[in-house]
Amino acid sequence: MKILFLNHNVKGMGTYIRCFNFAKHLVRFGHSVVILTSTPHRILTPKKEFIDGVEVIFMPDIVGKRLRNGGLGPIDTILRCLFLLGREFDIVENFDHRPAVLYPALVSKYLRKMPLVSEWTDLHGTGGSLSNRPMGLQQLIRPYEDFTERKSKQLPKKLVVISRGLQERAIKLGIPESKIVYIPGGADVEKIVPRLKEEVRKNLGLPLDKKIIAYTAGTHYDIEFFLKAINHIQKARKDVVLVTTGVMLDDKYRGALFDPKRIIELGFLPYEKYTALLPCADVFVFPFVNSSLNTGRWPNKIGDYMAAGRPTISNRTGDMVNLFEKHRIGLLASDAPEDFAQKTLHFLSNEQLSLQVGFNARKTAEAHYDWRLLSKKLEASFIEVIDKDRTAVAVQPAINPFYRPRKFLMNFLDTIKAFFFNRQKDI
Q1: Rounded CA separation 93/109 (Å)
Q2: Separation of CA 349 from chain center
Q3: Are 84 and 109 in contact (CB under 8 A)?
Q4: 268-307 pLDDT tens trace
């Protein structure tokens, strides 16, 4: 199969990680995979890389990284649409619905007649990540965000959901259950492996005589809850150090800590260094309070934590309940910071229990969440879609938008009008 993945995050962040892990394994299965994703740095011309056999293409744009990472680059979006006019694929999969993904997906579906599969990996609109934006911005973009999030899920031949919460929302939209495929986040069991924590700490210059709590985050969701829990832990034990990767704390949050000196912030690390760091931990923490936003999520970090073979503390939210209770990979706390802290301290005080639960976590990652296994499930969905589509309208040949441009423009506008003005259901 010739497969195209449309992703809005910049390389190495957010959904790109899920997208790339699928792509890498699909290439190993014998398929050809192209990823169109956003560039981490401003570039003036398209750029191409081959990573583990995957063709990764970045389109240029003039907007800042934050907008590019949100799939909001106008030049990027236009160039992706033009790219779709000239390349042919057996199947196209778009990850979520940001403009840099949505409009090329519409081109592939309506103008090129390529089979389309969509992924729903986060709740972006009302009740989701939109709720974390400034109020003025919420009011401005809510109608567009809500509409495109809902309507885009009704277009594909198959809808892949990352969580049971999003699966329920999809069913409420009227999408038949037979079209919905549940594929949670995976674990990179090849590059993240359990190692002696003393060896890891020595190599990275981390304290050998302390208990280390490890935490990684791409955003500061649930940060107030988390800092309260850390304060309880710091007050209870003086030998505990918090090591974080990803987004760093600003002065306001650091000032809220009981002892800011007992936190080591490493920021965003190259993937190789990040994977090498993880086994330094005694326990991982994954604050995940019960909210509509979190119910729809499956953050990448939980797969990383399992693969590293250490216990994890999280909250009784969404898919984490079944994961933790079925596989015994850690403990679930209530949404009270004191309870989260007590369960973390429980592992710090019980080395034998930590070893056993960490062993469970690694075995769970290998047996159920290895990206190779999840990619097989995605491959099966692609094959099913293509087999059913063989009797449908054939893929249209490449289109030159500069030949009869008026006709092309009218067809493209008809596509956009059909998307925005056909009726859609509310969640």
Answers
A1: 10
A2: 33
A3: no
A4: 999 999 999 999 999 999 999 999 899 999 999 999 999 9
Distance CA 110, CA 104 (A): 10
Largest CA distance in the chain: 73
Distances (CA, A) of 137 to 131, 145, 293: 10, 11, 18
Within a domain: residue 426? no
> Quick check: 59 and 69 in contact, CB under 8 A?
no
Place of tokens 């940060």: 223
Give Cβ neighbours of residue 190 (< 8 Å, ≥ 6 apart). none
Domains of the chain: total: 2
Q: Confidence band (pLDDT; 50, 70, 90) for 213?
A: very high
- Report which residue type is found at 43: I
Classify burial at 166, counting beta carbons within 10 Å of its beta carbon; exposed 0-12, middle 13-18, buried 19 or more. buried
Q: What is the CATH number of the domain that holds 310?
A: 3.40.50.2000
Listed in sequence order, the residues at least 6 apart from 84 whose beta carbon sits closer than 8 Å to its beta carbon are 4, 92, 104, 107, 108, 111, 112
Q: How confident is the model at residue 251 (pLDDT cuts 50, 70, 90)?
A: confident
First and final CA of the chain: distance in angstroms?
Answer: 34
Domain ranges, residue 340: 197-369
d(CA 97, CA 87): 21
Position of tokens 């999520």?
Answer: 297
Which of 353, 369, 385 is the C-terminal boundary of a domain? 369
Q: Identify the three-state secondary structure at position 309.
A: coil
Side by side, the strands of the sheet bearing 312-315 are 263-265, 240-246, 211-217, 283-285, 312-315, 330-333
Structural tokens at position 194? 């359990």
Token pair belonging to 77: 């979006």
Contact 3, 33 (CB under 8 A): yes
Q: pLDDT-derived band of residue 426, with 50, 70 and 90 as boundaries? A: very low
Q: State the sign of the Cα–Cα–Cα–Cα dihedral 254, 257, 260, 263.
A: negative
Question: Looking at per-residue confidence, does 262 or 251 come out higher?
Answer: 262
Six token digits for residue 316: 């009784």
Q: How far apart are CA 252 and CA 234, in angstroms?
A: 18
Residue with tokens 């119910």: 295
Entry pTM: 0.91
Report the residue count for the chain: 427
Token pair 């919420």: residue? 138
Residue 191 lies in a domain: no
On whether the CB atoms of residues 39 and 75 are closer than 8 A, the answer is no
CA distance 246 to 13: 10
Percent of the chain residues topping a pLDDT of 90:
76
